[in-house]
């Protein structure tokens, strides 16, 4: 099964040498599930010709806001809606989670309560899961056709499912603790409050259930689709 990675952001150059860029992280996260990957740098205007070019799509995280004025965001939203209409499965992570919600009629905003950084606990459809997070924006109003799969006291819409067509997650299952540590020493400085950074640093060694989330993503991609247009 070929998964097209729609890359909407770039990892800091200083961290790429050790952690790889975002597509590398997803290939590592989903290793062993029988996927091949093709990357499209939509953040630089590189788009697939059609939603049928791959068997499924994955939208990465980004330092950009879904509500910002970038030339690549409107065509990405159109691509999302086209994939949904064609029943091509799509997964969105962090920014991907947010841009899918926005494209489908939800609202994304800079969250008044600030940042979620590092190991974060979620109630994921009745299952306790800890995943790494790195976000200040949130889906504050989910689309009407989205069901909440995961939440916590800080993030109500932490994971959404759109029938059997789209699965989106606010957290970063692809981020390992060392990458979170690297972000804290690069992008976090002067941006994330010291107390939030300190709390995240205290939890860097906490176990995360990244492979539990990887299994959920893989199962979603491989699931038999219903009511697929002829």
From TrEMBL:
What PROSITE patterns does the entry give? GATASE_TYPE_1
Signal peptide positions on this chain: none
The domain of life for this entry's organism is Bacteria
Q: Which Gene3D superfamilies match?
A: 3.40.50.880
GO cellular component, alphabetical, reads: cytosol
The lineage, from the top, is: Bacteria, Pseudomonadati, Pseudomonadota, Alphaproteobacteria, Rhodobacterales
Q: Where is the Glutamine amidotransferase domain?
A: 73-178
Put simply, this protein is called Glutamine amidotransferase
Please name the PANTHER family in this protein's record. Answer: GLUTAMINE AMIDOTRANSFERASE YLR126C-RELATED
Q: Which UniProt keywords apply?
A: Glutamine amidotransferase
